[in-house]
Amino acid sequence: MDKIRCIIVDDEPIARSILETHLNKLNAVDIKASCKNAVEAFNAINSQDIDLIFLDINMPEIDGLSFAKSINSDIKIIFTTAYREYAVDGFNLQAVDYLLKPISFERLSQAVQKVLLHHDLSSSKEVDIPNNKQFMFIRADRKMVKIDYSDITYIESLGDYVKIHLKDKIIVTRESITNIESKIPASDFIRIHRSFIISIAKIEIFTNEFVEVGKQAIPISRSYKKDVLSRLESL
């Protein structure tokens, strides 16, 4: 079984070591190089085929965002950083995911799963994620509310808050849609727009332009369209 060929790019040795330790637990991933700067990373991707880069943003000389803009768009990127304010820039570059340090093994595993599911590197690869939870807790109305994944129809971002649409009610929270995306199982949900994540099981109709959930037509944005249609058409 072919593995995802990846490199790690981070100027901090400890950060690289943590990523290496986590990634070595995943059978679907093969670390081809661990680089301390963009120059080493350029050499790595020019000398071998690379599928995925774990890329720090705040690096000296050539930062991660500049590096990402300069490489082949076929190489997938998962940004890693200690700075939340870079998230919008990261997703504008169509990164697969954006991981905030310190990075847990579970969160990293979810990000790798997105590469496998959304970008079709190989339908035969699987990542063993040690998470069998069927629910999450979300802060709403000054309480922590339990939400079963199976009850979610779609998730909608509206400025400073997020609406989680359930089959019988709506939960409103101040959490970001990106943070919520990190909690839900990537195998059961799909992000079709910066502002929308959909439960795949609840999709009744889809076209090139929208998906329909509970008679609600939700748009597929241009930046997500290729991956969304590829995944839905393969179901």
Description:
This protein is α/β, with parallel strands linked by helices and 235 residues long. The chain has seven helices and 15 strands. The strands form four sheets. The chain has a five-stranded parallel sheet with strand order 2-1-3-4-5, sandwiched between helices. A five-stranded antiparallel sheet has the order 10-9-8-12-11. The chain has a three-stranded antiparallel sheet with strand order 13-14-15, with no helix packed on it. Residues 121-130 have low confidence and may be disordered.
How are the strands of the largest sheet arranged? 2-1-3-4-5
User: What is the number of helices?
Assistant: 7
Average pLDDT number: 85
Helix content: 25-40%
- Which value, in Å, is the CA radius of gyration? 18 Å
The profile of the biggest β sheet is: 5 strands, parallel
- The count of DSSP E runs of length 2 or more, i.e. the number of strands, is 15
Shape: globular
Class computed from helices, strands and strand pairing: alpha/beta
Question: Roughly how many Å apart are the termini?
Answer: 21 Å
Relative strand content? 25-35%
Give the topology string: H per helix, E per strand.
Answer: EHEHEHEHEHEEEEEHEEEEEH
**pLDDT below 50 for ≥5 consecutive residues: which ranges?**
121-130
